[in-house]
Amino acid sequence: MPRTCAACVVLRKEKRYPTQTMENQGEQATAPQGATPQADDRTTIALVDDDRNILTTVSIALQAEGFATRVYSDGEAALTALLDNPPDLAIFDIKMPKMDGMELLRRLRENSALPVIFLTSKDDEQDEEAGFQMGADDYIAKPFSLRLLLARIRAILRRSDARRPLPLEVGEKAAEIIERGRLRMDPARHHVTWDGKPVSLTVTEFLLLEALALHPGVIKSRNQLMDAAYPDDTYVDDRTVDSHIKRMRRKFRSVDNDFSSIETLYGAGYSFSDG
C-alpha cells in the first residue's frame, strides 16, 4: 500500500489550500496562489520536519492565515538559525536525521525560551510527557487537524504576546513586579530571577509560576493552573501541568540546589512558599 501523508488526509475534511512547491530550506515558503504580499513584520513560524509533504502543507496553510514561514529539514540545520534569528514560534518533528527534535529542543532551551510545539507521529504518553519535560509548550500527534494546529498556535502566541512589553496608554500603569522572597518576576519583560540569578522560563512556565506566586501559600488545583496557563479553552491533560512544574523546579535548582518553594500537595495541587 502506498504511503499516505497524514496531514493530507486531514485536509480532505477541512479547508483546502493550493499546492505549491517549497523554496530552499531556511527560506520563506512559496505563498499560496492569489496571496497578497505581506509586510516583513508578519508573525514568523519556523517548521522543522524531514517530511517534505508536511513542510509544504503546513507552510502553505500558515501563509494562507497570514503568517510568514521558514522551513528546515533537520534539527542540525535549524538550531543555528533559530538562535541567530529567532522566529515568533517553532514547530518541531521529533524523528529527524542528524539531530532529532528532542535534542534540538534541549539545546535550544539552553539559551532560548522560544515557544515550541511538537508535531510528531510519536503519540504515546511517555513521548508526550518527555516532550513537556524538555520544555515544549504544546504537543500534537500526527495525523493532525490543521484547524487544531492553528488554534494551538494562536493560543500560544496570545500568551507570548501578553508577556511582551508594549507602549503604555495615557494613564495606564505598568505591570507590577512580583517579589516573593528570593523570587523576582517582571511580567512586562518576561524576566525571572532567583536570588538575583536569571532563570529562563517558557511562556507556559512563566504563567504557571505567576499564578502560584501571586497567591503564596494558597493551593492551586491543576484545573486552576491549566486555566491560568491555557486561558483559551484548550484541552490540556493533567500530566501536562505536572511536567511543566517538574521542569520549572529543575531550572530553579540549577541556580539553587536547595530550591523548594514550589510545593506539591498530593491530591490537591501546588502552592508557592516564599519563606
Automatic annotation (TrEMBL):
Residues 44-157 form the Response regulatory domain. The keyword Oxidoreductase does not apply. InterPro entries: CheY-like_superfamily (IPR011006), OmpR/PhoB-type_DNA-bd (IPR001867), Sig_transdc_resp-reg_receiver (IPR001789), WalR-like (IPR039420), WH-like_DNA-bd_sf (IPR036388). GO terms for biological process: positive regulation of DNA-templated transcription. The modification 4-aspartylphosphate is found at D93. The keyword tRNA processing does not apply. It comes from the Bacteria. SMART domains: REC, Trans_reg_C. Residues 28-38 have a biased composition (Low complexity). PROSITE patterns: OMPR_PHOB (PS51755), RESPONSE_REGULATORY (PS50110). Keywords: Cytoplasm, DNA-binding, Phosphoprotein, Transcription, Transcription regulation, Two-component regulatory system. GO terms for molecular function: phosphorelay response regulator activity; transcription cis-regulatory region binding. Residues 175-274 bind DNA. It is found in: Cytoplasm. Residues 175-274 form the OmpR/PhoB-type domain. GO terms for cellular component: cytosol; protein-DNA complex. Residues 19-39 are annotated as: Disordered. This is Two component transcriptional regulator, winged helix family. It comes from Qipengyuania nanhaisediminis.
